[in-house]
Amino acid sequence: MITLYGAALSPWYNKVKVALLEKGVNFEEKLQRPSQDDAVLAVSPMGKIPYVDINGFKLAESGAILEWLEDAYPTVSLLPPSTNDRARARELSLLIDHYLISASGLLSMHLLFGAPLSEESKADIAAKLARAVSAVNSRIGQSGSWLCGDSFSLADISLAVALPHLAFLGEKVLGHDPLLKLALPPQYRERLAKRVSVTRVWQEREQLLQAFLKR
Known about the structure:
Distance between the termini: 33 Å
Oligomer: single chain
Order of helices and strands: EHEHEEHHHHHHH
Strand order of the largest sheet: 2-1-3-4
Radius of gyration: 17 Å
Number of strands: 4
Strand content: 5-15%
């Protein structure tokens, strides 16, 4: 049994959850905030979420967890079949994670927890996001249904969790959705919305977000 610790407000948590659902892995969820408590640091050295308990084996960092899932459950792969496309999927996933999702951290802290954010900082974040969108666009494949051809991959998972996350933060704090200029394959968002794993994660994220905002 795999136990996934974290919360659906975290795109990193949602990445792992989509992968678990896609692979049909039996798992349970336990709500956990980021924490510097000793008990959390013992399993997640930076005190971040998500982390997992795999029959007693503790593992943190979403990238490492996803790689473990690929090794442990290879039948339903989340990487394309060819070596080059697999590398491209990993590259795109890292671009999305490091330069889109990570760049939104200050927006999250401001909107959800009231951290100060100057107009200069907002403009700087908007510029970084725009540059990241251009970088992602330069690597999106020109053919196929998904970001790296015809296979739903880790790159698509990263973008699937980034889309609602950045749309919400961007519209609320920056006044626009920073991902609207992504050069996505035709009907991409519609096809994402038809995947059971993605729609479940989107819905559960929205439910927790609305509950959090009502506090």
